[in-house]
From TrEMBL:
CDD domains: SAF_AH_GD (cd11613). Residues 11-86 form the SAF domain. Pfam families: SAF. It comes from the Bacteria. It comes from [Clostridium] citroniae WAL-17108. This is SAF domain-containing protein. One of its GO terms (molecular function) is lyase activity.
Length: 94
């Protein structure tokens, strides 16, 4: 059963389609190719999971777009959210 979505071949994160618990397997499709990732953290529904390792200071890419920069090294299978990425957008007024 597919329980994750990865839209663009450049994406380094997928979106989980149901709450995932640590050690579960997420199965996602990219075009006609399926892949799996072992979940390293509990992940709420519709949050992101790293499908590849993401080095500290590099871009986090979702749906083919840069959505942030990794504040720490993120391992494949880790939850990706505001605790380990920061926005690339500046606050208005800066």
């Amino acid at each position: 059963m597919v329980n994750g979505i990865l839209i663009d071949e450049r994406d380094n994160v997928a979106v989980v389609l149901k709450p995932m618990e640590k050690q579960e397997l997420i199965r996602y499709m990219q075009r006609e190719i399926a892949d799996t990732v072992r979940v390293l953290d509990d992940i709420p529904i519709y949050h992101k999971i790293a499908v590849r390792g993401i080095a500290k200071g590099t871009y986090v890419i979702k749906y083919g777009e840069i959505i942030g920069i990794a504040m720490e090294t993120i391992r494949r299978g880790q939850h990706v959210h505001i605790h380990n990425i920061e926005s690339t957008k500046k606050n208005e007024g800066e």
